[in-house]
Structure prediction request, 218 residues.
Amino acid sequence: MAKQNYAVIGLGRFGSSIASKLFEEGQEVLGIDLNEERIESSKFSLTHAVVLDSTDEESLKSVGIRNFDHVIVAIGDDMQASILTVLLLKEMGVQKVIAKAINKRHGQVLTKVGADWVIYPERDMGERVAHQLLTPNVLNYIELSKEFNIEELMIPSRLTSKNLRELDLRAKYNLNAIAIVHNDHIIISPSPDQIIQEGDKLIVLGHRDNINEFANIR
Prediction:
């Protein structure tokens, strides 16, 4: 992955987890927060960390905020500060602003003032947990639309030792197998002769109803 630079504004649990993960992946990460204790506790998982008020334009200019490839606004419960920060960032010419929303109305306002991507962490995590409870064989998923997902599935044991041609996913379930994870090795676009082994994971693309049907095979 090419190195990019990120600024994360607001180092609560959500912001600090994003910042530390990006840093672990070798990215340049600036952490910004008004709370000096948060800055102090996060400084070893960031490239740089500064205490400043993100609603102050001059303070943002002082750290060269417009030069960052991505700015994540992860401010907690202060909706006014969150909205004003996004507005300032876009007015200053920041290309990609990602903002955390507390609720739907907050998200709508963030979009109106220019946020390029609005994230609802609590809602999204709630949906993810519910999805996992309803389909325990699903390990992970990406929602492409209201109807279609990419999902990583544990293969039911009775379907192992068969190849993809025998499973016939497209005809039986209208699903496309796009990868197989075998011993942490990813096989992209597996051939029809690829054998599914015990412990393998299958990554499929399709309508969520069809995926659920296949995932719930016993």
The two ends are 39 Å apart (CA to CA).
